[in-house]
Design a protein that fits this description.
Layout: E1 5-8, H1 19-27, E2 30-33, E3 37-41, H2 44-48, E4 59-62, H3 65-77, E5 87-90, H4 93-98, E6 109-112, H5 122-126, E7 133-138, H6 144-150, E8 155-165, E9 178-181, H7 184-193, E10 203-206, H8 209-217, H9 233-282, H10 288-316, H11 321-352
Parallel strand pairs: 1-2, 1-9, 4-5, 4-7, 5-6, 7-8, 9-10
Antiparallel strand pairs: 3-8
Helix pairs in contact: 1-9, 7-8
Length: 353
Amino acid sequence: MRIKKILVSQPRPTSEKSPYFNLERNYGVEIVFRPFIKVEGLTSKEFRQSKINVPDYSAIILTARTAIDHFFRLCKELRYNVPDTLKYFCVSETIAHYLQKYVIYRKRKIFYSETGLMEDLIPIIAKHNKETYLMPVSDVHNDKAVVLDNNKVKYVKAVMYRTVSNDFKPGETFDYDMLVFFSPAGIKSYTTNFPDYADRKVVIAAMGQTTLEAADRAGLKVDITITPETPSMASAIEHYLKKAKADEEKEERKAARQAATADKKQPADKKKASTTSSKKKASKPLTEEELFAKRSAAAKKAAATRRAKAKAAAKNKPLTEEELFAKRSAAAKKAAATRRAKAAAAKKAAKKK
């Protein structure tokens, strides 16, 4: 199928240099950014029900920028001044730098994994095994916590925000050819909003192992995902669009060749049909009247041919001596008559003078 409109279940990028905008320009597709899910923060009242006392912890494990936002929001609502001594252990450098939104980066003890993997953060945490760790998470969180459990890290998960479905409005247009998912919650939102999702003919793109597993459980066939050759979702989509465009052009060339072959074959078919029609007509038996007329015409044609041949033969036949003498005598008589006429005319002219 030809891809014309793509829904990416994420907020619209703030930078115009996003590779998604390059896809629009290079492949003539329309990309709509609309999250299938949205994040809601727990209120301070809801958080207190968990009986977690934030001041009891000397370190915090951060796996997402959303976790940072809601941690500092709740601390403010709880009227807790985050101490300068709090240590931050981030799963990636990007998340670590995001802390600058709330703290003076160079004056805080901030650690992060060089690879962006939780596994590589474990050795750093192990060096600070006397800390008490708090990990802000969503009500539906990923398997990063499993890595901590497997390595026997002592920590407490604190649910500070929740992921909810960003429902579609009744009658809202949904004419997309491709859907792009980044979380199991997005898959759930799609299947909840559209109970007939199994019958919808759309291309599915999914990123992340848990997202792929959620798609499989929902019975969705995933057509696009990241690979070592296409490490980002944008590059994976581009690879798919490039192949689809090449296949489309191949089909167009094939159709053009078939049309040209049909045009060349058509005159030959008409000629063959005409010959067949003539043969059928000739093979039809004649009536007695048609047969008589045909024979009469043939006889007349034969007689005319004989007369023409006889006339041509007579014209080319050599003269006998008698015929040659008679012809010469007639010519001599005609010449003598001509001379006499000229002499009489001359004599008459002389008398007038």
